[in-house]
Design a protein that fits this description.
Elements: E1 8-10, H1 12-22, H2 34-45, E2 48-49, H3 59-65, H4 73-81, E3 86-90, E4 94-98, H5 106-115, H6 125-137, H7 162-172, E5 176-182, E6 185-190, H8 191-195, H9 206-221, E7 223-224, H10 226-229, H11 237-249, E8 254-258, E9 266-268, H12 270-274, E10 284-286, H13 297-304, E11 325-330, E12 333-343, E13 348-356, H14 366-385
Parallel strand pairs: 1-8
Antiparallel strand pairs: 2-4, 3-4, 5-6, 7-9, 8-9, 10-11, 11-12, 12-13
Helix pairs in contact: 1-9, 2-4, 6-7, 9-11
Length: 390
């Protein structure tokens, strides 16, 4: 049996630059503009998380804006409802995913159809029959259903409307999809009718799904670990680890040892290690706390030396960064965390708290650093206040 190659040493600076390139945060406008840019960005990243918090613009719009400077909300609506190049489903959270990846999610849909979904075990067959009858007649929002008898919630996030839970169950089983959104109001449509299919595509095999998870991680992260590939998906780790070992033996992946990672193993494709990793120091990104660069907190801490605190659910007196702090990336360093709030009535962006972190704590050069961040804040404010039609 051949021995595994010795891991290639990698500094955190090198790992940072590889990751930023993989995330396409190392250039100004990597995907162009318009609905096609949205489709290309989602295809490259693999998913864009959706969240309801709107202290500032919701995270799916924010994540896309960070990579598409000319981004408009209408671009995502067009990609979802007209081009149908993206659709919504569960990754580690509710997300926009590429329509071309649909077959990789079909096995999960079939499992929910066969075995039910633990979140919607209380959905009654009569409620399912009701929403399916309405769906067959045409697209449907929860506001179109006015005859629900409200029920008590079984947990905090659950709707009191039985029809909404039935629609959500139809979504997870793949019978229905979300064909449009107006804010957070979802329009449901039959999956086959939305995509113009006679029947659903052939589902991916377990082997294909394992390769999909690994390839998605390599494409969007550059340097990967089992935790980063299988974020909140522990059952997939065993199969992914076997595939990684096989690719290492073939020379398709290289083991790397990142400074400070201890025993945690990482890998990268040779091409990712050979790429020019320099990031322009004048690039500034105000990132969502749900951005792929931030959402895996331990990974962000290892590679950037920054431990992001999401404190929306922390009592005010115990917050360090603020209710909805946003990390600020300048070049290849996270230098600040800004607690921002959009006052839509007064039409301005409010800075609740400014915290310097990392290199931003140094007083040398801070005046220039503050200037470039404030320039980006002006652009960020214009994005926040742009009309929904834009």
């Amino acid at each position: 049996m051949s021995r595994s190659p010795k891991p290639l040493p990698l500094t955190t600076t090198q790992a940072r630059q590889i990751w930023l390139h993989a995330q396409r945060l190392d250039v100004r406008a990597p995907f162009g503009e318009g609905a096609q840019a949205v489709a290309d960005a989602v295809a490259h990243l693999g998913y864009v998380q959706i969240d309801t918090i709107n202290v500032i613009e919701r995270c799916h719009h924010h994540i896309l804006f960070s990579r598409i400077p000319s981004y408009r909300r209408a671009d995502l609506r067009h990609a979802q409802s007209v081009d149908k190049s993206v659709f919504e489903y569960w990754t580690h959270a509710l997300s926009y995913v590429p329509a071309n990846d649909f077959r990789f999610f079909l096995p999960a849909m079939r499992e929910h159809r066969r075995e039910g979904h633990k979140w919607y075990a209380s959905v009654k067959p009569a409620d399912t029959r009701k929403v399916m009858r309405l769906l067959r007649a045409g697209p449907l929002t929860i506001r179109d259903i006015e005859d629900d008898v409200l029920t008590e919630k079984e947990h905090l996030w659950q709707s009191r409307k039985p029809s909404k839970r039935a629609l959500q169950l139809a979504f997870y089983t793949g019978v229905a999809t979300i064909s449009a959104r107006q804010g957070m109001l979802k329009t449901y449509e039959l999956m086959t009718r939305h995509f113009g299919w006679d029947k659903l595509p052939k589902p991916a095999s377990a082997k294909d799904i394992t390769a999909y998870l690994l390839d998605r991680g390599l494409r969007s992260q550059g340097v990967v670990s089992l935790d980063s590939i299988c974020h909140l998906d522990a059952p997939s780790k065993k199969a992914v680890a076997r595939l990684i070992a096989m690719r290492v033996r073939r020379g398709e992946l290289v083991p790397v040892a990142i400074d400070g990672a201890g025993k945690q193993e990482h890998w990268a494709a040779p091409a990712a290690l050979e790429a020019n990793g320099e990031v322009s120091p004048d690039l500034v990104h105000i990132l969502s706390p749900f951005d792929p660069l931030i959402i895996q907190r331990k990974r962000t801490n290892l590679i950037f030396g920054y431990n992001h605190l999401f404190e929306a659910y922390v009592p005010k007196a115990k917050r360090k960064l603020g209710y909805f702090a946003l990390p600020v990336l300048v070049g290849d360093e996270i230098v600040a965390a800004l607690d921002l709030k959009t006052d839509r009535q007064a039409r301005k962006l409010l800075i609740q708290k400014w915290t310097w972190v990392g290199q931003g704590k140094k007083t040398v050069g801070r005046k220039e650093l503050k200037r470039v961040i404030e320039e980006e804040l002006d652009r960020f404010e214009r994005f926040q206040l742009a009309s929904e039609a834009g």
